[in-house]
Amino acid sequence: MGFLVGPWLAQAVRAAVDLSLAEHLAGGPRTAEEIAEAEGADPAATARFLRACASIGLVAYTERGFAGTETLAVLHREAPMSLRDLAASQSSPCLWQTWARIPEAIRSGQAQTAQALGMPFFDYLAAHPDEGRLFGAAMASMSAPVIREAVEVIGVAGATTVVDVGGAHGSFALAMLARHPGLDAIVLDLPHALPGAREAAVAQGLQDRCAAVAGDFFKEVPRGDILLLKFILHDWSDDECVQILANCRDALHPGGRVVITEILIDDHAPGIAPLMDIAMLATAGSRERTLTEFDDLLTRAGLRRVTVTPVEPPYAVIEATAAA
């Protein structure tokens, strides 16, 4: 039953985000009536919803009303590692319509976004800017703990330019700049993602060191010393990954490195990685990969792996250089 009511739980979290429960309860307990009035919601339905939230640990009963919990706190928009955008995005109609077709994805081995949305996933985000911005913000929040560890293990000796390939809001590039004052950065992505990248750079005071550039990594990648590929290759087929990696190889300055941050899947390991693999199948017709599968892609693209460093499980940082 816990599995079967999973959709209820995810949509309850989405509703908590939509009703700003974390923000309303940040200052202390409030009654259902107070929250309903602040949100323009039905008081009786709000009370029932808060009762449901209490049953799953998002809120707690007090004499004064309902109080937020540590679990709810991560849905606050200003939380250090906020999951607010991720909760809203992962339960949004575009993803849920696609994931409802997982049986069809398994039968066919093909992505289901065209059937669910009328077009491929990233074309849909480009055609729906609000959802595109939300998805970009969600990926930034999902990336935060991985980026925090990755920037500590990526060496920058001799490097001056880092390129965040398909970098969306540029979270990885900006973290590298904050950690290493001698670096400049380029964020490469499709046009719909660039406003978010520029806004993020300005918010961190790094706009003079970070350029957001529109482009297509299947055609060309800006030249640099460190080329970052975070959560990119799992979106694409093997042949498409080889094309991306080959373009990155061609864009490397002498002695440069391609740095891949992705899930490393293990056939026998429990956890989220195998589930993410099925989500990627349905959404993009793509996959999570083993280290052996990454090595094969690198070899085909004229690269060779030099290091692999585990970070936030199940993620790892794989560094590669141009093959001799």
From TrEMBL:
The record's annotation in CDD domains points to: AdoMet_MTases
The O-methyltransferase C-terminal domain covers 99-303
**Can the keyword Cell wall biogenesis/degradation be found in this entry's annotation?**
no
Question: Record's InterPro entries?
Answer: COMT-like, COMT_C, COMT_dimerisation, SAM-dependent_MTases_sf, WH-like_DNA-bd_sf, WH_DNA-bd_sf
A Pfam family matched in the record? Dimerisation
Domain O-methyltransferase dimerisation, first and last residues per copy? 6-69
UniProt-listed GO biological process terms: methylation
Q: Where is the active site?
A: H234 (proton acceptor)
> Which molecular function term from Gene Ontology is one that the record holds?
O-methyltransferase activity
Name the chain's protein: O-methyltransferase
